[in-house]
Design brief:
The complex is a heterodimer.
Chain A lengths: L18 H6 L14 E7 L5 E7 L1 H5 L3 E3 L21 E2 L7 E2 L5 E7 L2 H10 L1 E6 L6 H5 L9 E4 L2 E4 L4 E9 L2 H7 L2 E9 L11 E6 L5 E5 L4 H12 L6 E4 L16 H12 L3 E4 L2 H5 L6 E10 L5 E13 L5 H15 L4 E10 L13 H18 L4 H8 L6 E2 L8 E2 L5 H12 L14 E13 L16 E7 L5 E4 L9 H13 L6 E3 L18 H28 L7 E5 L4 E6 L2 E7 H10 L6 E6 L6 E13 L5 E11 L6 H20 L35 E5 L22 H13 L5 E2 L3 H9 L1 H5 L8 E2 L1
Parallel strand pairs in A: 1-15, 11-32, 13-14, 17-18, 23-24, 30-31
Antiparallel strand pairs in A: 1-6, 2-5, 2-7, 3-6, 4-8, 8-9, 10-18, 11-16, 11-33, 12-13, 12-15, 16-17, 19-20, 21-29, 22-23, 22-28, 25-26, 26-27, 29-30
Helix pairs in contact in A: 6-7, 9-10, 10-17, 13-14, 16-17
Chain B lengths: L5 E3 L4 H9 L6 E4 L5 H6 L7 E4 L9 E4 L2 E5 L4 H6 L1 H6 L1 H8 L4 H6 L2 H6 L8 H6 L3 E6 L2 E6 H4 E3 L2 E2 L6 E8 L5 E9 L7 E12 L2 E10 L6 E2 L1 H7 L6 H14 L10 H22 L8
Parallel strand pairs in B: 1-3, 2-3
Antiparallel strand pairs in B: 4-5, 5-10, 6-7, 6-10, 8-9, 11-12, 12-13, 13-14
Helix pairs in contact in B: 10-11, 11-12
C-alpha cells in the first residue's frame, strides 16, 4: 500500500463554498430562477392507469389566454430519458406527450399562462375524453397470457421492436457451470426475497425554466444530474444543433438518483416555451413528483451451494423487476443486480436470469444504491443464515468468502471488470464489531419479555463509477471533462459541468485541485457554468463524482501545474523538476520555490501577473478522462435494534458504520453520507413502501407527503450511539487515493436490519419493509415456525 | 394548487359570528391555523368561496382556570398547550398528545378547535379531551350553547355544529388529586405522522377502588370513540392485572377499525388491546395503587 504524502487540504473539514448560501436561503435552485416575461407552466395528468386519449379539446383553456400543448404539438420522437447507456443498450419508449397514458399521473397535456392561478384554471378547462384500457398494476397481471400490451413496440437499435407479454428486457449471465457447481456442493440453500418500491423523498421537486431567444436558441435551467445529457436529448427531440441549447448548471436540492434522467417536465417546458415564444417555468408539486418516479420493485430467488467448510461453489439467482410504465434503464439495472451479487463473494459458478416487466404504475428510476441494496439484502441475509447453519460467526465466515484485495470485481455488470487494489473490509469489520459489542450479541430466539434486542451485520460496496479498461463495447458511457485556469492574481477557476447533488462533490473536487496545484482552498473558485462553456461530463451517478469527475479535474490541474512550473523555471532560473508549490496561509497564495535556495521563490500571483503584463498568455488546461477501473467503495454496517413485541415497532439503538472510500477528502461530509444512508436505509428496511390502489391505479398515498413517509431525525440513534469509521486505505487508481462513498452508504441497510431483527426474535424476514405488522404476524405464528427446523429446507446433495 | 376565495378577517368574536351569520348561501368556512383546511383546499376536497379567519381574535387564545373549570380558548395553538403549566397539571394526556402532534411548524399554527372541527378520527387532541369529559362551547350571533364532546361527533367528519356556529372554547372540570390521565400515540414514525392508534385513559380512585374510568380511542372508528364497555368493567372495581387485560380486550372488541395505508384493522385492534392495557396499568400506578402488569 502506497504511503500518503503530506496533504494540505484533503482530509480536513473546511467551510463549504456553497454553505452560507444554503443555510441563509439565498442559494438558487431551478424553481428560484426568475426570468422577465416568464409564464407559468402546468401539466395535466392522467387520472387513469391506462387509457387512450379519444379526444382532447383545449379551446376553453385557450379562451382563458393560455397556450396549450398536446401530443399533436410536439415532435413525434421516441426517446429514453436516461442516456448514460451506450446507444445499443437504449430502449426508447416515450414521447414528450403521447396519445396514451400508461400510469396515473402521466402527462397528458400542458399549459402556459401569465399567472399560476390562470395556468391551473386553464388545466381544469381542458376537456379530455379517455378510452379507458385495462390496467396491469403488478407483474403477475402484466405477464398473464393475453394481457393487453402496455407498449406495442419500442424503438431499439433504430427499429420499432415489438414487446411481448409486457416483458421489457431479459438478461442471462453465466459464469462457469452451475450444474457442476451444485453437484459439488455439500449443502444447498434457496430463499425468496422481495424489496418494495419506495419514493426517493428528495427535498427539491422537479423544476425547469426555459427561455427561448429570437434566433431559435434556448436556455434551460433544470433539476438534473447531467446538464450535457439534458442538452443532447433536447437537441435530439427538437432537432436543434447543440450550440443552440444552453443548459445551466444550478444547485440541486437532492436527487438520490431521481434526476439521473432528463425529467419529463423538461421537454414539456421547452415545447411550451417554443410554442408561446416566452420563457416558461414549471415547478412540480410534491404530489406530481411522487407520481413521477420511484425505486424498482424487486423479487429475487437465490439458490447457493456450499461445501461443508463453507466455501461457496455455485449460485443461481432469478430476478423479476417491475419497471412501471417506462423502461428507463431496465437492461442496466438487471445487469448490476447480477454484478453486485457476484462481486460480494467469490462464486466460481453462477447463473443469473433477470426479467424486467412493464406495469401501469409510476415509472421506476435509479435510486441510491441502484440494485445494490436489493442484491446485498438477499446475499447478506442468506450468508448470515449459512454462517448460522455452519455454526460460525458471520463476520469470520464472510471474511473467508468475500471478494477483496487482488480479486476480480464487476459490480456494475459483466462489462465493467477490474481487479481490487484497495480493501478496508477486515479493518472495518474489526472496528465495527468492537464498537457495537458484536461478541456480546444475544443468541437468536432465546429472549422473552416485551422488548428484545438484537445486533445485525451486513457488508456491501458500491462501484466508484462505471470505468473499465476496454476501448469499445462498453455498456455505459463514462467520462468526465474539466477545465482548470490560472487567473491573473494566482487564484484558480475550476470549471466543470459535473453536478453536485448537495453532498459536496464539487467542494471535494476543488480540494483536489487546490492540493495538486499547491494553493490554499480559498484560492480555488467553483465556476457557475453551463453546457456552452464546459466540456462533457456524463452524469453525477454511480458514486463516480469525486473518483471519476475529480480525476478529470485533477488531470487538468496537473497540466496547469506543469505549465506553471515551466514558466516559473524560466523566471527563477531553476530546473522545473526542482520547484515545488505550497500554499502559504500567511500570504493567502501558492508559493513557488526551490528547496535549498530560499531566494528562488515567487508567489503564484506574482507569476500570473508577470505573464499577464508581459503578454505571455493564460495558463489553462482542458482535459477529459475515462477511468479504467471502478473500485469498490466498501461499507460495513452493524446495527443494534430493540423490538417492542407488543406493537412490533423496531427502534434503532446504536449503529457502527464503516466506509472504505480510500483517502477521505471531506471527513465531515463523508460521515454525513453514512448517517443519511442509515436513516433512509432504515426507512426502506422498516416502513417505506409504495402501494397502488388495485381499482384506480392511484398511489394509496395519492401522492401526499403525509402518507409517503421516510424516517426522520427522531428515529436516528443518538450521536453517542452512532459510530462512524473510515478505513485507512489508498486506492492507487483514484485521485489522491480516493474512491466513492455516496451510494455505498445505504447499501447494507436492508440486510443489516433483517439480520438484527433475526438476532432479536429468531425470525428471518426476507421481505422489506419489515413493518410492525409483519413482525407481529410472524411472532404470532412463531411457534408453528419453530417446529420446522431450518435444516429441513436444506437439501444434502 | 391555487384556490380563489374571499378572505375576511374579523377583529372580534362578535364580528366573526356576525360574518358567519351573513353567509347568504356562499360556501363559507372558518380558518384557524389552516394546517388541515389548507391541505383539503389544495387537494380540492373542499372549494370554499369565503374564508373567515380567526387570526385577529385574541380573546379566543387563552388558557384559564375559573373555579373548578379549566377553559381553553378555541384558537389556542398546540404549542400554547405545550407551554402551559395549567394543562400539564390538569390535563396530562392533552399535554402528552400536544407533544407528539405533527411537527413543530404545524404545532405553532394548529389550534385546539381546529383539531376538533376537522372531524378526523385521528385528531390527536380529541382522545385526551374526551377522556377528560370536556365540553365544547358553540357560539353564534344569538348566543352560545355547551355540548359534551362525547356528543359532538355524529359520524365520520360530521358533527353537531351548525354552519353559523363557531367553536369558542373547550372546558373540563379540574381533576382532583385522585385522578390520573395518560395518552399514547402509535404511528409509523415519531414526528409528523398521522396516528395509527391513539389511546387516552383517565382513571379516578377512592379507597383502592376505581371510581371513574374513561378510555378514549383514536383512529379506530369513524369518530374518536369511548370504549364504554371497557370503562364499565373497570369502574367500581379494584384493578388487577387480569381485570385490566379483560377490559383491554373488551376495548379492542368495541372499536371498529378499518384497513388503510397506515395499518390494517387487525393491527389497530391489537394496538388498542396493548395500549389500553399499558395505559390503564400506568394510570393505576400513577394513583399510587400500583399493580404489577406485564
Amino acid at each position: 500500500m502506497q504511503t500518503r504524502t503530506k496533504l494540505n487540504t484533503i482530509g480536513r473539514n473546511t467551510h463549504r463554498k456553497d454553505g452560507i448560501g444554503k443555510v441563509t436561503g439565498t442559494e438558487q435552485y431551478a424553481s428560484d430562477v426568475s426570468v422577465p416575461r416568464a409564464w407559468y407552466g402546468g401539466v395535466l395528468r392522467s387520472p387513469h392507469a391506462h387509457a387512450r386519449i379519444a379526444s382532447i379539446d383545449t379551446s376553453a383553456a385557450e379562451a382563458l389566454g393560455a397556450v396549450c400543448l398536446t401530443f399533436a404539438d410536439v415532435p413525434r420522437v421516441k426517446y429514453n430519458e436516461r442516456t448514460n447507456c451506450a446507444p445499443p443498450h437504449l430502449y426508447r419508449d416515450r414521447y414528450v406527450l403521447d396519445d396514451t397514458a400508461r400510469h396515473v399521473g402521466e402527462a397528458v397535456a400542458a399549459v402556459a399562462a401569465p399567472t399560476r392561478a390562470l395556468a391551473e384554471k386553464a388545466l381544469r378547462a381542458i376537456k379530455v375524453e379517455y378510452e379507458v384500457l385495462p390496467a396491469m398494476l403488478c407483474a403477475a397481471d402484466a405477464l398473464k397470457d393475453g394481457a393487453p400490451k402496455i407498449h406495442e413496440t419500442i424503438l431499439y437499435r433504430g427499429k420499432e421492436t415489438p414487446i411481448e407479454h409486457n416483458v421489457a428486457v431479459t438478461r442471462l449471465i453465466e459464469v462457469g457451470d452451475i450444474e457442476k457447481g451444485f453437484a459439488e456442493a455439500d449443502s444447498i440453500i434457496e430463499r425468496e426475497f422481495e424489496a418494495a418500491p419506495v419514493y426517493h423523498a428528495q427535498m427539491e421537486t422537479k423544476s425547469v425554466v426555459c427561455k427561448p431567444a429570437v434566433d431559435g436558441s434556448i436556455t434551460v435551467w433544470a433539476t438534473t444530474q447531467s446538464i450535457h445529457n439534458t442538452r443532447q436529448l433536447l437537441a435530439e427531440i427538437y432537432g436543434l444543433p447543440l450550440h443552440k441549447i444552453n443548459v445551466k448548471k444550478i444547485a440541486i436540492g437532492g436527487t438520490f438518483g431521481s434526476s439521473i434522467q432528463m425529467n419529463s417536465v423538461v421537454p414539456i417546458c421547452v415545447g411550451l416555451a417554443i410554442k408561446s415564444g416566452r420563457p416558461v417555468k414549471i415547478a412540480t408539486t410534491r404530489e406530481e413528483d411522487m407520481y413521477d418516479h420511484c425505486r424498482y420493485q424487486v423479487r429475487i430467488t437465490l439458490k447457493l451451494g456450499f461445501k461443508a467448510d463453507g466455501t461457496l461453489v455455485a449460485g443461481h439467482m432469478k430476478t423479476t423487476v417491475e419497471l412501471g410504465a417506462h423502461n428507463t434503464q431496465g437492461y442496466h439495472f438487471l445487469g448490476v443486480i447480477a454484478g453486485f451479487w457476484v462481486s460480494l463473494y467469490k462464486l466460481p459458478n453462477m447463473k443469473y436470469e433477470g426479467t424486467a416487466v412493464y406495469t401501469n404504475r409510476t415509472p421506476s428510476c435509479a435510486m441510491q444504491g441502484f440494485g445494490a441494496p436489493q442484491a446485498t439484502f438477499v446475499t447478506e441475509v442468506i450468508m448470515d443464515e449459512i454462517a448460522e447453519l455452519l455454526g460460525r460467526d458471520p463476520v469470520e465466515y464472510k471474511l473467508t468468502q468475500y471478494r477483496g484485495l487482488g480479486d476480480t470485481f464487476w459490480g456494475q455488470g459483466p462489462t465493467v471488470k477490474s481487479i481490487i487494489l484497495s480493501d478496508g473490509v477486515p479493518e472495518l469489520l474489526e472496528v465495527g464489531a468492537k464498537k457495537i459489542g458484536w461478541d456480546g450479541r444475544p443468541v437468536p430466539g432465546t429472549q422473552t419479555g416485551r422488548f428484545r434486542r438484537g445486533i445485525g451485520m451486513a457488508r456491501s460496496f458500491h462501484c466508484s463509477g462505471v470505468g473499465q479498461p476496454r476501448k469499445t463495447g462498453a455498456e455505459m458511457i463514462d467520462y468526465s471533462g474539466a477545465i482548470v485556469k490560472l487567473n491573473e492574481d494566482g487564484s484558480i477557476d475550476y470549471i466543470q459541468s459535473l453536478m453536485d447533488h448537495g453532498g459536496g462533490t464539487c467542494e471535494a473536487i476543488a480540494k483536489l485541485v487546490a492540493e495538486e496545484i499547491g494553493v490554499p482552498l480559498s484560492m480555488v473558485g467553483i465556476s457557475d457554468v453551463d453546457t456552452n462553456t464546459t466540456v462533457y461530463d456524463i452524469t453525477t451517478h454511480a458514486t463516480r463524482g469525486v473518483f471519476a469527475g475529480g480525476a478529470a479535474a485533477l488531470k487538468a490541474a496537473k497540466s496547469v501545474k506543469a505549465k506553471i512550473l515551466d514558466y516559473a523555471s524560466q523566471l527563477l532560473d531553476i530546473m522545473s523538476e526542482s520547484l515545488v508549490i505550497e500554499p502559504s496561509e500567511e500570504l493567502g497564495q501558492g508559493v513557488i520555490y526551490c528547496p535549498g535556495y530560499p531566494e528562488k521563490r515567487m508567489t503564484l500571483g506574482e507569476l500570473a501577473k508577470y505573464l499577464h503584463v508581459n503578454s505571455w498568455g493564460t495558463i489553462a488546461a482542458v482535459e477529459s478522462l475515462h477511468p479504467v477501473t471502478a473500485p469498490p467503495a466498501y461499507v460495513t454496517y452493524f446495527v443494534e435494534v430493540e423490538v417492542d413485541t407488543e406493537t412490533g415497532v423496531v427502534k434503532t439503538l446504536a449503529a457502527a458504520l464503516g466506509s472504505d472510500c480510500g483517502t477521505v477528502v471531506n471527513p465531515g461530509l463523508a460521515a454525513g453520507q453514512l448517517t443519511g444512508g442509515l436513516s433512509k436505509g432504515a426507512g426502506c428496511a422498516l416502513i417505506e413502501a409504495h402501494q397502488w390502489d388495485r381499482q384506480t391505479g392511484e398511489l394509496a398515498s395519492k401522492g401526499f407527503w403525509v402518507d409517503g413517509k421516510t424516517l426522520s431525525i427522531l428515529e436516528t440513534p443518538l450521536l453517542e450511539n452512532l459510530h462512524i469509521d473510515f478505513a485507512h486505505t489508498y486506492e492507487p487508481t483514484g485521485p489522491f487515493g480516493a474512491k466513492g462513498i455516496g451510494e455505498a452508504s445505504i447499501n447494507p441497510a436492508l440486510a443489516a436490519y433483517s439480520n438484527a431483527i433475526y438476532n432479536a426474535l429468531g425470525i428471518r424476514f426476507r421481505e422489506v419493509p419489515i413493518t410492525a405488522e409483519k413482525i407481529l404476524a410472524a411472532l404470532s405464528t412463531k411457534k408453528v415456525r419453530r417446529t420446522q427446523p431450518a435444516q429441513r429446507e436444506l437439501v444434502n446433495s | 394548487m391555487f384556490a380563489e376565495f374571499d378572505l375576511e378577517m374579523p377583529n372580534s368574536l362578535d364580528e366573526a359570528v356576525l360574518a358567519l351569520a351573513r353567509s347568504d348561501g356562499i360556501e363559507t368556512l372558518t380558518l384557524a391555523g389552516g394546517s388541515s383546511l389548507m391541505v383539503d383546499i389544495r387537494a380540492r376536497r373542499v372549494v370554499p368561496e369565503r374564508l373567515i379567519s380567526l387570526a385577529r381574535i385574541n380573546e379566543l387564545r387563552r388558557i384559564e382556570i375559573l373555579g373548578p373549570r379549566i377553559t381553553i380558548g378555541s384558537r389556542t395553538t398546540v404549542s400554547d398547550i405545550l407551554r402551559s403549566n395549567q394543562v400539564a397539571e390538569h390535563g396530562a394526556a392533552l399535554a402528552a398528545s400536544a407533544e407528539v402532534f405533527a411537527g413543530q411548524m404545524v404545532r405553532n399554527v394548529a389550534t385546539v378547535a381546529g383539531n376538533i372541527a376537522c372531524g378526523s378520527p385521528a385528531a390527536d387532541l380529541v382522545p385526551p379531551l374526551l377522556s377528560l369529559d370536556a365540553d365544547v362551547v358553540l357560539t353564534n350571533a344569538s348566543g352560545f350553547r355547551t355540548v359534551p364532546l362525547a356528543d359532538y361527533f355524529t359520524g365520520f367528519k360530521q358533527d353537531v355544529r351548525r354552519p353559523d356556529e363557531l367553536i369558542t372554547a373547550i372546558s373540563w372540570d379540574v381533576p382532583g388529586a385522585k385522578c390520573a390521565n395518560r395518552f399514547y400515540k402509535l404511528a409509523r414514525r415519531k414526528g409528523d405522522a398521522i396516528t395509527v392508534t391513539g389511546v387516552a385513559v383517565t382513571l379516578g380512585a377512592a379507597n383502592g377502588v376505581c371510581t371513574k374510568a374513561r378510555v378514549a380511542l383514536g383512529a379506530v372508528a369513524p369518530i374518536v370513540m369511548r370504549a364504554r364497555a371497557a370503562e364499565a368493567m373497570l369502574e367500581g372495581s379494584t384493578l388487577t392485572v387480569e381485570l385490566i387485560e379483560e377490559a383491554s380486550l373488551k376495548a379492542a372488541e368495541e372499536c371498529q377499525p378499518i384497513d388503510d395505508i397506515r395499518a390494517s384493522a387487525d393491527y389497530r385492534r391489537h394496538a388498542v388491546h396493548m395500549l389500553t392495557r399499558r395505559l390503564v396499568a400506568g394510570a393505576w400506578a400513577d394513583l399510587h395503587l400500583a399493580t404489577e402488569v406485564s
